[in-house]
Amino acid sequence: MPETLPVPVAPADIVPVALDRAKAYAAEARADRTRKAYSSAFGCFTTWCRGVAACPLEAEPATVAAYVAHLADTGRKAATINLHVAAIAAVHRAAGLDNPTAAEAVRATVRGIRRTIGTRQARKAPATAETVKKMVRKVPDGLAGQRDRALILLGFAAALRRSELVALDVADLERAPDGIVLHIRRSKTDQDGAGQEIAVPRGSKLKPCEALDAWLAAARITSGPVFRPVNKGGAVSAERLTDRSVADIVKRYAEAAGLDATLFSGHSLRAGFVTSALAAGADVLKVMHVTRHTQVTTLQKYDRRARAFDDHAGRKFL
Q1: Which of 211, 204, 164, 162 is nearest to 183 (CA)?
Q2: How do the domains of the chain map onto residue ranges?
Q3: Which H/E stretch holds residue 269?
Q4: One fold for both 14-117 and 129-306?
Q5: Which of 5, 18, 264, 299 has a Cα-to-Cα distance from 231 of 20 to 30 A?
Q6: Strand pairing report for 179-184 and 173-176
């Protein structure tokens, strides 16, 4: 009869520590922005539940359906409602509870809301190459101005998301004969942190690399965050800018250039690069090398905009 080997058992004092570490790793499965968004959304759900004497955890499907209807009735958009539903589902799954959003009562309510209010998202205007030129012409002299010029031009030239732009450190900048290679440590399409590289040419018109070098030299930044706050006295902080700051800077110079600032956001720089590249006839795959989109179909909405008037059906008679 074969010998039965003993099954090792972890010491009792190690198990709680291991479970805590497992929970910590599980919490990192989502991006930081997603976790914050889910936390805020579930907090709203909890507050609403208190007001109607309902239990937020373990929530009944009828409670969730009523909350979703409340969101729609108070003017929330479909994307916001989807976020709240996803947050409720995620919290319940993390707690090992049945997911109330999977119930048909909730699904039917969500479907009805989509048919009623629609799912179209309001898109911000792209800051195309011509728009960026107008914006940087309005950038004033001084440290803050040099930072803003570098931020706008680099964000556009590398088609960066605003979170990627403010996350850049000096160590992420690799000098090359033809420009700079940006090392993106983590992004929306690289949640595991494998890293991505983006080549930024020196350029002969917008000259993003020149603007970046001018900012770093003027601010005497040799390590740490690339883009930082500058106070009114001209002192440069050791902290990094927030992604909200990127949107504020883009809006500020869009308005200074005589444009409607409400139509622009931090995403306008990324969208503007794609629109400009496709309008200039750039190969879609080459564009994807810069944007790091994983699906060609994602770029189709930009391509439709860039070529909206090319060979228009009514060109010969309108």
Answers
A1: 164
A2: 14-117, 129-306
A3: helix 267-279
A4: no
A5: 264
A6: antiparallel
Residues with catalytic roles: 161, 188, 267, 270, 293, 302
Architecture of domain 129-306: Orthogonal Bundle (1.10)
189 Cβ neighbours under 8 A, 6+ residues apart: 196, 292, 293, 294
Q: pTM here?
A: 0.67
pLDDT in tens, the chain (318 residues): 445 544 444 444 544 544 454 445 445 555 677 888 888 899 999 999 999 999 998 999 999 999 999 998 988 888 889 999 999 998 899 888 999 999 999 999 999 988 887 655 556 789 999 999 999 999 999 999 999 999 999 999 999 999 999 999 999 999 999 999 999 987 665 555 567 899 999 989 999 999 999 999 999 999 999 999 999 888 999 999 998 999 999 999 999 999 999 999 989 999 999 989 888 888 888 888 888 887 777 776 666 666 666 766 666 767
14-117: CATH, from 1.10.150.120, 3.30.1490.150, 2.30.29.30, 1.10.150.130: 1.10.150.130
